[in-house]
Amino acid sequence: xxxxxxxxxxxxxxxxxxxxxxxxxxxxxxxxxxxxxxxxxxxxxxxxxxxxxxxxxxxxxxxxxxxxxxxxxxxxxxxxxxxxxxxxxxxxxxxxxxxxxxxxxxxxxxxxxxxxxxxxxxxxxxxxxxxxxxxxxxxxxxxxxxxxxxxxxxxxxxxxxxxxxxxxxxxxxxxxxxxxxxxxxxxxxxxxxxxxxxxxxxxxxxxxxxxxxxxxxxxxxxxxxxxxxxxxxxxxxxxxxxxxxxxxxxxxxxxxxxxxxxxxxxxxxxxxxxxxxxxxxxxxxxxxxxxxxxxxxxxxxxxxxxxxxxxxxxxxxxxxxxxxxxxxxxxxxxxxx
Length: 337
Known about the structure:
The structure is a single chain. By secondary structure, the protein is α+β, with helices and mostly antiparallel strands. It has three domains: about 100 residues, Rossmann fold; about 120 residues, ATP-grasp fold, B domain (D-amino Acid Aminotransferase, Chain A, domain 1); about 90 residues, no CATH class. Helix content is about 35%, strand content about 25%. It has nine helices and 15 strands. A five-stranded antiparallel β-sheet has the order 13-12-11-14-15, sandwiched between helices. It has a four-stranded parallel β-sheet with strand order 2-1-5-6, covered by helices on one side. β14 and β15 form a beta hairpin. It is globular. The chain starts with a strand and ends with a helix.
């Protein structure tokens, strides 16, 4: 029987309960699809401990090597425990999900690193600048001044607009812009600034999180859209697609958690393959890949971000897919024969 450990930090979330219940249903044969023998434990990072006298790292006395698959559902602030667990693994090694955690670098889970790796892999992403908040402000201040110089040169409005477009096409920015936290936080640190004054206020408001909490930010181009698409990836497979769209003129985010509408959708096969490639590039096997399209053109996909341990409540509502069951089945399939 495959033994799976699902690691988490903090309290047991509703999503984790659904995953555990899915394992129970599969083991008992609910749904008429036959029984799947599986033992799944939810393991808190609080269980990780060691003693110098023995040198053994355990889960409060339980050997991590008893498991066939280790699924690090969340990592967050727990990379120290993650590294201890990884270092305690012996041959034959359990399968590790997501592969990202084996790198042992928290920065690899950040959005800034994703932008670099995805671009290197030939995947289009929003034009982005990474740096301190005041540096990001200075970038836009220079852009704002250059645009003012264009219009004050005595040229016609048409000529000025052409030059402004040229600046943008050469990877310069124009308002509105997005200010996004590199650490993710499920859309809670994503902001839109329509002008330099709004950006300055955002920078001043967020400075404390940067200086005292070590939060980092990116400046990104704003891509006009009527919604984006969440592609749920399990390994080499696309489980399904949903479209998310904002329902308020005052809310630019499409996230379900921000009140966005969700509905089942489909995408061209090439875009689905792109989503699988994006997840693999980011070292993720269970991923939510967010895709939008430049100029509303399905031939111009842009990967906004790749989410580790994606929430699936909205996805299940939109698609009707039993995501917890599919995740457990995927983890079971990884057991080494």
